[in-house]
Design brief:
Blueprint lengths: L2 H15 L6 H11 L7 H8 L7 H11 L3 H6 L1 H17 L2 H12 L2 H17 L6
Helix pairs in contact: 2-3
Length: about 130
């Protein structure tokens, strides 16, 4: 599936989940009730529902609020959000006070010294990486 198809599928599912028919006319009407800019056309709503286009970020936020779903989940899906959250959690759990202190000191270094420190860390990481099977 491509990005537009996946977005359309999530939009349709969210509309049905909220008790709406996933049709361009319903989407056009409900969206325009909440949107304070220039109204969208039935054609634009059709495009969103039929894998032709993805709304701009400001319109996506209105859709997400109406459908009671996080904008990033509506746009990119649950899997992307879960990957980002897992990465964030790894940092929260794996980075203690001492590491944060080192990161702060690193950020205070001038760019040439940061480059050297980065190269040293990457060399250590490469040398201690698990051998590939």
């Amino acid at each position: 599936m491509n990005e537009k198809m996946e977005f359309s599928q999530r939009l349709r599912e969210a509309m049905v989940h909220m008790g709406h028919t996933a049709s361009p006319s319903v989407l056009e009407h409900e969206f325009n009730l909440r949107w304070h800019g220039r109204s969208i056309s039935n054609q634009a709503a059709w495009g969103w529902l039929n894998s032709r286009s993805i709304p701009t970020q400001d319109k996506l936020q209105v859709l997400a609020e109406w459908l009671k779903v996080q904008p990033e989940v509506l746009r990119f899906g649950e899997a992307v959000r879960n990957k980002v959250e897992a990465h964030r959690q790894r940092w929260e759990e794996g980075v203690g006070f001492q590491e944060r202190e080192v990161f702060d000191a690193f950020l205070r270094l001038p760019a040439p010294q940061r480059k050297i420190v980065r190269e040293v860390i990457l060399a250590f990481a490469k040398a201690h990486a698990a051998p590939e099977s």
